[in-house]
Write a structure and sequence with these properties.
The complex is a heterodimer of chains A (about 180) and B (about 675).
Chain A: H1 7-34, H2 40-69, E1 83-90, E2 93-97, E3 100-102, E4 106-113, E5 118-123, E6 129-135, E7 141-146, E8 151-157, E9 169-175
Parallel strand pairs in A: 1-4, 3-9
Antiparallel strand pairs in A: 1-2, 4-7, 5-6, 5-8, 8-9
Chain B: H1 25-56, H2 64-94, H3 102-125, H4 148-179, H5 183-186, H6 189-192, H7 202-233, E1 238-239, H8 241-275, H9 283-298, H10 312-324, H11 326-341, H12 350-372, H13 375-381, H14 386-415, H15 421-448, H16 462-493, H17 525-539, H18 545-551, H19 555-578, H20 580-608, H21 611-614, H22 621-643, H23 647-667, E2 668-670
Antiparallel strand pairs in B: 1-2
Helix pairs in contact in B: 1-2, 1-14, 1-16, 2-3, 2-8, 2-14, 3-4, 4-7, 7-8, 7-9, 7-23, 8-11, 8-12, 8-14, 9-10, 9-11, 11-12, 12-14, 12-15, 14-15, 14-16, 15-16, 17-19, 18-19, 19-20, 19-22, 19-23, 20-22, 20-23, 22-23
Classes of the chains: A alpha+beta (about 180), B mainly alpha (about 675).
């Protein structure tokens, strides 16, 4: 299965590309200004006047993003799940019980490890990464995902775990009820 | 201090040279040694990086086993190289106003280089390949790829690297706090409160903040590394995986993050030389560094976002800190840098072009990091190629550009001329094009969901690796052009006429009047001494037979009892060394010896806490009692030796060493 751009990832990447481009343009513009001669007092006074607005812009922007993110946290969602799958990662395999899950249900993946740290990353049939959680020895991390579309989903290891890390993958089926 | 004689006007801004004292011979030695080693490591590790890209592009056939070894070496080597270079850069600029220890700096270098050699041996000859982050228990679960000696060599090597950095941080913090009369003044707190009309320069505030956080990170790193080394000695030792992950990422995150903050301290001095305007200590700058000290310390948990069992409060603090850490950078350091450059008739040379580009790399890479630190984003981007994309943006296109700028600055001044026009424009342009092309391919691959640290990329994504490889080659071509110009400048610097330039203006007064003052003892006056002794007596409850017996029931309680015994000794040792007659006699002669004892004794204490070492002693009463007394003696040595580093560092070392014992007790739970 080849990975593909998800809608969410595309939005994030384009947003970041926009910010990076804006920064690049700013640095290009500032480089041109660097060659000019402007009395330092003028530059400094203008910069000091503008700095509180820049600080407020960043503070408000970051706060807004963090507040919005609270509505989409992947934590503590076990109560919403209608089915569960026990997942054990080991060098270099995934065992899942059961191996088939119903489409449209909130599934709780109870993920642990038999040996070292692994990363349980789930890709939908189109190859979009839906989410991931760590498989850690001695602990169980519970990740809830709603898998709407029937078909073959791919599990790939997302935490480096040894010489066959890149081969540590398996598929599972999501079926119509 | 010896002036650097071969610096004709024209290499820097006409007004820039008068802004800072001229560097002396020892500053030159440290600058060349550290930055030169850093550049060599960057070149070698960069070649490994290109090999990895070509492997992922299916252009060459490196086996997965070797790919992961190269990956481990590339990560560890790059971080060590960048860290070394920026330690040298900061030392170079701070030494002009604060009397830092030359011998200690060379000792730090020796430890780090010895550690790097051990890492190379472990990886190349031992096959060790866990990635540089050595997440437990992977070092002990090699699936047949490496043996225990390789694990021990790698962990021991990283421990040496950490010790070298620890020595640097201790010396810097002891020197700045002594020179400026205390932690509050050296960090600019007294200035913020309106009680200091002559605050330390920005590079000293940066050095104080970075060395404080660096001591904390080194103590945490030493704890996890020694715990893991203990497991190579006693395979039955049980180490909690979540505990290990927290300590490893606290160490690793801080270590990687502090590189750029070390670099910022250097830039506070280098940039004004090309802008001709001073970088002064202001209240926003002092607030920014206080905030950075707090935020770098609390942000590390974003590496554990996908460990849902990590406490929610830790995730909450981390997500706020990770975003907030960008604010001092954006509102103070980069903002002020641009303000100084704007309309300054900036002197464009090879060094100053690279300095300028480094700001862009820090800004763009920093935003990439902030995006990934939002938890719902991390849920879909964690451990994808987005991660190397953002940290390569601010390390390769930020810190490494500043490393190259530092060397270009030294070379252009030494040769008495600026680099050729071709090198000044061509080398940075090719490296910027290649670098942004490389990270661009990674950002796109990360959004695509391609995992990082994969020897073989998923089908259909090879094109991104081919694209990235081509851009790495463009970067390498720019780098070769840079090296060629470096060699030309170096040759010209050896000519007699380059050594006879106009002498510099006399070094300006920049240091504190207290710069040559001796440090004060950690405990001053009878009240503080009595308090320490009182606390030691209270902590001595751990020696009570009932407590000893109870602590035998659980390894964790047993280790807690060890921590308490260590605390007893440490407090008593500090009280003894702080008495005026002892302190005045010992500090001038034994301070450096004390520094090494204060690092080695807590490490020895943790090694003694390996179950396989102490369990055989428990069968004989005399040996058992001697063992517990030995823990206290090590504490006493630590407290005594720490005191010789002065008030601030002495107290901090005591807290950190006891903290190491407590952390060890919390995570090493079985045997």
């Amino acid at each position: 299965m080849s990975p593909s751009f998800g809608e969410f990832q595309t939005v994030v990447a384009l947003l970041f590309a926009g910010i990076a481009l804006a920064l690049a343009l700013f640095f290009a513009f500032a480089a041109r200004q660097a060659g000019r001669e402007i009395p330092f007092e003028r530059v400094r006074d203008a910069a000091y006047r503008a700095r509180p607005f820049w600080l407020a812009f960043l503070a408000v922007g970051f706060t807004a993003v963090l507040c919005a993110s609270l509505f989409f946290l992947p934590y503590n969602r076990e109560a919403e799940a209608s089915a569960s799958v026990k997942v054990v990662g080991g060098q270099f395999y995934w065992s899942m019980t059961p191996e088939t899950v119903p489409a449209g249900a909130e599934i709780s993946f109870e993920v642990t490890s038999a040996d070292v740290n692994h990363g349980f990353g789930v890709y939908d049939p189109q190859g979009e990464l839906l989410g991931n959680v760590q498989a850690m020895p001695g602990y169980t991390n519970e990740m809830v995902l709603k898998l709407d579309e029937p078909g073959s989903y791919l599990v790939s290891c997302l935490e480096f775990c040894g010489s066959k890390h890149h081969e540590m993958a398996r598929e599972f089926e999501v079926t119509e009820d | 201090m010896e002036a650097f004689a071969a610096t004709p006007l024209g290499v820097v801004h006409p007004d820039g040279e008068r802004l800072h004292p001229a560097p002396g011979r020892q500053e030159q030695i440290v600058g060349w040694l550290f930055a030169g080693t850093g550049l060599v490591l960057f070149a070698v590790m960069g070649l490994l990086g290109l090999t990895m890209r070509l492997t992922q592009a299916d252009a060459i056939g490196v086996s997965p086993e070797w790919f992961y070894r190269l990956m481990t070496l590339h990560g560890a080597g790059m971080l060590v190289g960048a860290m070394l270079a920026m330690m040298g850069g900061l030392w170079f600029v701070v030494r002009a106003t604060v009397p830092l220890g030359f011998g200690r700096m060379l000792a730090s270098y020796s430890a780090i280089v010895a550690g790097a050699v051990a890492v190379v041996v472990a990886v190349v000859f031992g096959g060790f390949a866990t990635g540089w982050t050595f997440l437990s228990p992977l070092p002990f679960e090699s699936a047949g790829e490496w043996s225990t000696w390789a694990t021990a060599a790698y962990l021991g090597g990283l421990t040496l690297v950490g010790v070298g950095f620890f020595v640097f941080c201790i010396d810097v913090l002891a020197s700045t706090t002594t020179a400026y009369g205390g932690f509050g003044r050296a960090l600019g707190v007294r200035f913020l409160r309106g009680r200091d009309e002559n605050p330390p320069p920005p590079q000293v505030i940066a050095a104080t903040a970075v060395s404080t956080q660096g001591m904390l990170a080194s103590a945490v790193g030493t704890t996890i590394l020694i715990a893991l080394l203990g497991k190579t000695i006693d395979g039955g030792t049980t180490i909690d995986a979540l505990w290990a992950k927290n300590l490893t990422y606290f160490f690793g995150h801080s270590f990687a993050n502090l590189i750029i903050y070390l670099a910022a301290g250097m830039i506070y001095v280098l940039l004004p030389r090309y802008a001709g305007r001073p970088w002064k200590t202001t209240k926003p700058l002092a607030i920014g560094w206080l905030a950075t000290l707090l935020l770098v310390t609390t942000a590390y948990s974003h590496h554990l976002y996908m460990d849902f069992v990590q406490p929610g409060w830790a995730q909450g603090i981390s997500t706020i800190s990770s975003s907030a850490a960008a604010i001092p950078v954006a509102v103070v350091t980069i903002y002020t840098g641009m303000m100084l450059v704007w309309g300054s008739r900036y002197r464009w040379t090879l060094a100053s072009v690279l300095i300028y580009l480094g700001f862009a790399g820090w800004a763009i890479g920093g935003m990439g990091a902030v995006v990934d630190s939002v938890i719902p984003v991390n849920f879909r981007f964690h451990n994808t190629l987005w991660v190397p994309a953002h940290f390569h943006t601010y390390l390769m296109l930020g810190v490494v550009f500043w490393l190259m700028a530092f060397l270009a600055h030294l070379l252009e001044r030494a040769a008495g001329r600026t680099a050729s026009r071709l090198a000044t424009i061509g080398a940075p342009a090719m490296m910027a094009l290649g670098g942004y092309g490389l990270v661009g391919a990674w950002y796109a691959s990360g959004a695509l969901g391609v995992p990082r640290r994969f020897a073989v990329h998923p089908p259909g994504t090879e094109g991104y690796s081919i694209f990235a490889s081509i851009f790495v080659i463009v970067f390498a071509a720019g780098f070769l052009l840079l090296l060629y110009e470096y060699v030309r400048l170096w040759r010209e610097s050896r000519r007699p006429e380059a050594r006879n330039g106009e002498p510099l203006p006399a070094p300006m007064a920049g240091g504190s009047q207290e710069a040559t003052a001796l440090p004060g003892p950690p405990l001053a006056g009878p009240v503080q001494l009595a308090t320490a002794v009182g606390l030691a007596v209270a902590a001595a409850f751990a020696f009570l037979p009932e407590i000893q017996e109870a602590s035998e029931q659980s390894v964790r309680f047993h280790h807690l009892a060890h921590a308490s015994e260590f605390l007893v000794g440490a407090l008593l040792g500090m009280a003894v060394a702080s008495t005026p007659s002892f302190f005045a006699r010992l500090v001038p002669r034994f301070s450096t010896l004390g520094l090494f004892v204060a690092i080695l004794a807590p490490a020895a204490m943790m090694l003694l806490m390996i179950p396989a070492i102490y369990e055989p002693l428990e069968d004989t009463d005399g040996l058992h009692a001697a063992y517990h007394a030995g823990i206290s003696v090590l504490g006493m040595a630590t407290g005594f030796a720490a005191s010789l580093q002065g008030r601030v560092v002495g107290r901090l070392l005591l807290v950190l060493s006891v903290g190491m014992a407590l952390m060890y007790a919390a995570g090493v739970t079985g045997g």
